[in-house]
Amino acid sequence: MAPKLKIAAIQAEPAWNDLEGGVTKSIALIEEATSKGANVVGFPEVFIPGYPWSIWAKSPTDNAGFMGEYFRNSLVKDSDEMKRICAAVKEAGVFVVLGYSERFKNTLYISQSFIDENGVIVHHRRKIKPTHVERAYWGDGQGESLQTVAPSTLHPEVKIGGLNCWEHTQTLLRYYEYEQDVDLHVSSWPVLWPHPTDKDGVRQADWPHHITDEMSVRFSQVVALEGACFVMVYTQVVSEESKKRCRIDEFGYANNSVGAGGGFSMIYSPFGEELVQAPAAWGGVHLVC
Asked: Confidence band (pLDDT; 50, 70, 90) for 1?
């Protein structure tokens, strides 16, 4: 008989372009989730050091300094910072799927490290194909990243999977995860806002609807139903005061919905049913067992 586990959906603001701050915040969120009884914890896409929406809002030349800082604050998998996170995972005794921008030599990758209850990285994968302008900054994942599922060490009958953002749109990648017999799926996303509207509340026709919170959460819901698995949706948020730091204070899409933090975390049953109340705009740890 499968064990009864508590799973946590995190919605939180990163420490933008701050490696040390990101490590500290990740550890704090792991501890918070554990204090609430969680056994499995995941993180949004590139939670360390945050998703740089400025790559969509600014030209590569104008954004060069910001992304240079981003590169320096990305996390090296085999580093003292990662050892601190792994030690915190071991102390908590939980299974964690950590989403971060990985710096390997002179290349960045959109990565997920699967850290077991002993604080050991039992699987590591990179986003197979970064999306659109992401390809200017992050490299492609390699063949081993097609493996998207790893078993819990404490509960080996429970298999935990994960994909980043628009990997959820890749039909064959989803199918291959189902072939790996996933039970719990970590659906990692960045900040995404509602479809922009005009002053009368009518949707702007020139904005692509697939780049919205609504469509992103629907992709995650499809994984739950297709894969007959529980899906935890993990998202970032950005505060109004952080938008200037992130260089999106003049980016229309990020500012169309006043007070919207860009989060849409959720937990779905294998039937695609919502298992938690949709969170408020700003975050927290949401649990279901």
From this structure: low
